[in-house]
Amino acid sequence: QGGTRAILAAVQAHIITYLLFTRETESTHLDRLCQLGPREQGQALATALAETLWAAGGGGRAVVCLITAPVTTVPREGYRASSFTERVLLFEFSGKAAAQGFISDHINSFKGKGSHGVILFLYSLLFSRTLER
């Protein structure tokens, strides 16, 4: 019923925590939220995603999923092509800063219109946590 609300709420909580308490600035706490530009918004989102993935990976790894351009593939017998899953690429990081930098460099994959950002983040969470855990 909730759809993507639970995932978005968790990310928003991390963004607000970063903006109010972590980010270095000389402004007062509430002024910080009113003076954000697009670059700072992207940085806050990248930080929130990296922190969440790092926590899901137990503080030792993070996996970031991105999607490639559409390609035509013939599914193996017994499978049907979803045209999404076949295009997912996994990038594994053993350092939180490296994961955050990568996410920051590819932030439009998570926030751009039609980017499948929520499902990519959900896949990233699953692979960071591992299917066994």
Automatic annotation (TrEMBL):
Signal sequence, renumbered to the chain: none
Domain Deubiquitinating enzyme MINDY-3/4 conserved, first and last residues per copy: 1-133
Reaction catalyzed: Thiol-dependent hydrolysis of ester, thioester, amide, peptide and isopeptide bonds formed by the C-terminal Gly of ubiquitin (a 76-residue protein attached to proteins as an intracellular targeting signal)
Keyword Phosphoprotein assigned: no
Gene Ontology biological-process entries: protein K48-linked deubiquitination; proteolysis
Keywords of the record: Hydrolase, Protease, Thiol protease, Ubl conjugation pathway
Entry function: Hydrolase that can remove 'Lys-48'-linked conjugated ubiquitin from proteins.
Family: Belongs to the MINDY deubiquitinase family. FAM188 subfamily.
The name this protein goes by in its record: Ubiquitin carboxyl-terminal hydrolase MINDY
Protein source organism: Sterrhoptilus dennistouni
Gene responsible for this protein: Mindy4b_1
